[in-house]
Design goal:
Strand order of the largest sheet: 3-2-1-4-5
Oligomer: single chain
Number of strands: 5
Strand content: 5-15%
Shape: globular
Number of helices: 6
Amino acid sequence: MDTTEPHPPRIALIAHDRKKATIVELAREFAPVLRQCALCATGTTGSRIAAETGLEVERMLSGPLGGDLQIGARLSSGLVDMVIFLRDPMTPQPHEPDINALVRACDVHDVPCATNEASARMLLSLVAARHGLAAP
């Protein structure tokens, strides 16, 4: 018999610079759902989400300073259930290898990963449905 306590969904939130406003808006829109989750985020993204939505967010390092890798390590250890990573495909990223490693870790460990606004909305709507909440 499994005696482990169920935990709230553990969601990692990441966004490239040009997508930060979008992830903040998603967090604001889905705040009733996200309040029931354990959130972590890379540095600036987490700071903006916390400041602009009032959500509690554990902040890692900035992505270019290793935040993507910190989240990847948690994910590989089974401590992240879902990743929302709003990527900017039109702007080269100096830490592209770290980004690719994180997305690969999602694939290896079968962790859902939304990399654009449409897929993020779908995943957050599923979390809302599982918690009996109406999606925005």
